């Protein structure tokens, strides 16, 4: 038995999903189109607005990593209307507010990766990353082992974020 190994079996789903023929579906578009509670839960949608969708990142950098995207499949900020820009900005702010309350985030990394060479995993659908941070959360795991430690199941946090958002009104 290898006692020095850390296992993240959920990661294999992500690895297998890369570059599969016939999988041109955009998971952000699928999230934006979800209409039933079951579909929204499966796609980790927290809320939608007329121009935006807010969902949890299935392969997070940190616990509570959210994505905020336009509902329309657009790759570049230049393609967005003024209303879409405003709504995205407002939803990023709402995501920060939610994470401060729900997971006691002390700071945030906010960002957009435009194009595959800039790190965009979904270069065809613009999306903002909202990554909560805490004092001392950058520990030896990321520096030495290139490993992320996610302390809570995504499904449990999804339920908690929905509960806190409902309380917030």
Number of contiguous helices: 6
Strand content: 15-25%
Domain tally: 1
- Structural class comes to alpha+beta
Rg for CA atoms: 16 Å
State the end-to-end distance. 50 Å
Helix content: 25-40%
Q: Within the largest sheet, what's the order of strands? A: 1-2-3-5-4
* Shape type: globular
Keywords for this structure?
HIT family, subunit A; 169 residues; five-stranded antiparallel beta sheet; alpha+beta; 5 strands; 15% strand
What features would you describe in this structure?
The chain has 169 residues and is α+β, with helices and mostly antiparallel strands. The protein has one domain: HIT family, subunit A (2-Layer Sandwich). It is built from six helices and five strands. It has helices at 10-17, 27-33, 37-42, 82-103, 140-145, 154-168; strands at residues 45-48, 52-56, 66-70, 107-112, 128-133. A hairpin with a 3-residue loop joins strand 1 (45-48) and strand 2. It is globular.
Question: Can you lay out the helices and strands and say which pair or pack?
Answer:
Blueprint: H1 10-17, H2 27-33, H3 37-42, E1 45-48, E2 52-56, E3 66-70, H4 82-103, E4 107-112, E5 128-133, H5 140-145, H6 154-168
Antiparallel strand pairs: 1-2, 2-3, 3-5, 4-5
């Amino acid at each position: 038995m290898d006692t020095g190994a850390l296992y993240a079996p959920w990661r294999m789903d992500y690895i297998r999903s890369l570059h599969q023929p016939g999988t041109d579906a955009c998971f952000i578009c699928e999230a934006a189109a979800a209409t039933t509670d079951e579909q929204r839960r499966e796609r980790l949608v927290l809320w939608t607005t007329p121009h935006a969708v807010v969902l949890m990142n299935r392969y997070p950098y940190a616990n509570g990593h959210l994505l905020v995207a336009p509902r329309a499949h657009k790759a570049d900020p230049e393609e967005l209307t003024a209303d879409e820009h405003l709504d995205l900005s407002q939803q990023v702010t709402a995501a920060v507010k939610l994470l401060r309350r729900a997971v006691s985030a002390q700071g945030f990394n906010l960002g957009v990766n435009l194009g595959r060479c800039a790190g965009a995993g979904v270069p065809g659908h613009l999306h903002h990353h909202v990554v909560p941070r805490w004092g001392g959360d950058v520990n030896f795991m990321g520096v030495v082992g290139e490993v992320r430690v996610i302390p809570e199941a995504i499904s449990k946090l999804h339920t908690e974020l929905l509960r806190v958002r409902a309380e917030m009104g």
